Amino acid sequence: MSHRPRPADRRQLLRLACACAMAGWLPRWAFAQRRWSFDPFSLGVASGAPAPESVVLWTRLIAPGWLDSLGGEPVPVRWEVAHDEAFTRLVRHGEALASAELAHSVHVEVDGLEPDRWYFYRFISGDAVSATGRTRTLPAPGALAQRLRLAYASCQRWEHGHYGAYRHMREEGLDFVAFLGDYIYEYPNATAAVRNFPTLGLVHTLGEYRQRHALHRSDPALQAMHAACPWLVTWDDHEVQNDYAGTQAGDTRPLGLNGAADFLARRNAAYQAFYEHMPLRPSAFVRALSGVQVRLHTRYRFGQLADLILLDNRQFRDPQVCGHPSRPAGLVDPDTCAALDDGGRTLLGTAQEQWLDAAFAAATPGWTVVGQQTLFGRRDARIGPGARVWNDGWDGYAAARSRVTRSLEQHRVANPVFLGGDVHENWVGHVKADYIRPDSATLGVEFCGTSITSRASGAAQVPKRLAENPHYIFADGSRRGYGVVEFSPAGLTTTLRVVTDATRIDTPIETQARFVVRAGRREVHRL
Ligand code: FE
Ligand code: CA
Fold it and tell me: Cα–Cα 20 to 30 A to 55, which of 71, 150, 410, 432?
């Protein structure tokens, strides 16, 4: 290196020294431009939205301490994609402009890549170089892919623990992470906090949502997992507000300010901050007259092996029914809540429902994986006669769920696999044509995952609830972690990975249970 950095650049020099040791060289222009007195890439890098010939690369430049935005100036950012970690065999490169309007986030759509291939990528701004990420493309649509390995994860409440789970997830040899909701939590749980931060409050404004995302993303284990492979992301409620439904506010208990009046402004802010922090395509972010929209429902075709369908059951849903006025979500009695079966109510919205029906109609003969945010199957929470169901999940929209299962039947979808989150418990079972009738057709299998860190409140009840709902074969609420599914043309194996102690960054991990589904059989068996 020819330039002589100021003392304040010592940390940067170290980074560059590492980068140079790896790269052997850096282009002259990297030093000719802006000299940073801090690392603007302290939130790391990410990739997502893969296609056979393209992928999205993400970063966000941020001030030191990662709570403050950078200020008003747009910042040019160079990006590089290479075959090798030393970036000697560059494949593509270009420049993006990180603007203050989108919190200096960068969403680069790299095209001209080869299908079914891994790449390295990084960002450079002046004398600052980001961490190096690894990403991959999808196989060509007709390719006879033999193996797909993905993790499903959800609910990573920052103050409830450490992201030890992600440290172990890095060792799983994954193609993708499917993140199924509750990436952030919008209100604090200070009494249960394992770790604390100065701005742990209820977030409302764009600036506050940005801070909350940056807080979660400041975690090194989470950053490292984002850098390890592409993430396919959807959201649940806490990215905006507990239990919200479409344009209607949800749980108004935590503070008076989050009532219905300011809810749309709040949702707009939350949606924008989510987009700013996720590896999504720029076309997914739409400022419509009615407000900000983020398109998350997407289909990724992994050759002939699998379709990965992501759903959004928050943005377009009708309000919950039969709940309490100050808290619309709750356990309700299906015998006295006729609206649960109202065929006019929707969880996905009409357009997404039709889109899903078309996706099922075009399903591959392989696996049809549906990643969505909540438990899909019916879960009666009342032990013994009578029933209570949670009206905020699919149980609260039973008629809408029946439309989905009818669509599966009608299009003879060969191997449906539902993945979910939200409940902070592991549930494994069968998708039924009619959940009230155990002898009705079994249409697929379901794996609903536990949380990365967020605590579960009803773990002791889980074994009894499992017995009450025979379409499920396994349930546990005591452990945090994630699931790993490996698909092959002949079958899938799901491994539930659980940490010993989610409050420790150095927690060990273990396998809680393993399951197998043979192709064409729609039956899940515990190994
Ligand atoms: Fe959650
Ligand atoms: Ca019951």
Answer: 71
Alpha-carbon gap, residue 222 to 98, rounded angstroms: 22
CA distance 347 to 325: 20
Contact present, 234 and 310 (Cβ < 8 Å): yes
pLDDT (average), residues 207-229: 96
Nearest-Å Rg of the Cα atoms of the chain is 23
Most distant CA atoms of the chain, gap in Å? 79
- State the ligand closest to the CA atom of 153: 1
Burial of 378: CB neighbours in 10 Å, binned 0-12, 13-18, 19+: buried
Ligand 2 ion: residues within 5 Å (CB): 380, 382, 387
d(Cα 454, Cα 182) in Å, to the nearest integer?
Answer: 9
Q: Specify the pTM.
A: 0.93
Q: How far apart are CA 449 and CA 427, in angstroms?
A: 7
Answer with the residue of higher pLDDT: 187 or 122. Answer: 122
In this predicted model, what pLDDT tens digit does every residue of 446-485 receive, in sequence order? 999 999 999 998 899 999 999 999 999 999 999 999 999 9
Ligand nearest to C-alpha 373: 1
What is the whole-number distance in angstroms between the Cα of residue 4 and the centre of ligand 1? 49
Query: b/e string for 71-103 if b means 16 or more Cβ within 10 A?
Result: eeeebebbbbbbeeeebeeebbbeebebeeebb
Amino acid occupying residue 75: V
Give the C-alpha separation, 249 to 240, whole Å: 9
Distance CA 319, CA 310 (A): 21
Cβ atoms within 10 A of the Cβ of 437, count? 9
Spacing, Cα 187 to ligand 1 middle (Å): 12
Looking at residue 261, its pLDDT comes to 64
- Flag whether pLDDT at 3 surpasses 80: no
For residues 425 and 480, what is the distance between their CA atoms, to the nearest angstrom? Answer: 8
Helix, strand and coil percent figures for the chain, each rounded to 5 = 25, 30, 50
Residue 117 predicted with pLDDT over 50? yes
* Cα–Cα separations (whole angstroms), residue 421 to 34, 92, 191, 325, 375: 43, 36, 24, 26, 6
Among 22, 25, 17, 67, smallest CA distance to 42 is for 67
Q: How far apart are CA 486 and CA 137, in angstroms?
A: 18
- 286-318 pLDDT, tens digit per residue, is 999 889 999 999 999 999 999 999 999 999 999
Question: 3-state class of 267 per DSSP?
Answer: helix
Are the beta carbons of 377 and 446 closer than 8 angstroms?
Answer: yes
The answer to whether 360 and 408 are in contact (CB under 8 A) is yes
CA of 471 to the centre of ligand 2 (A): 14
Distance 423 CA to ligand 1 centre (A): 7
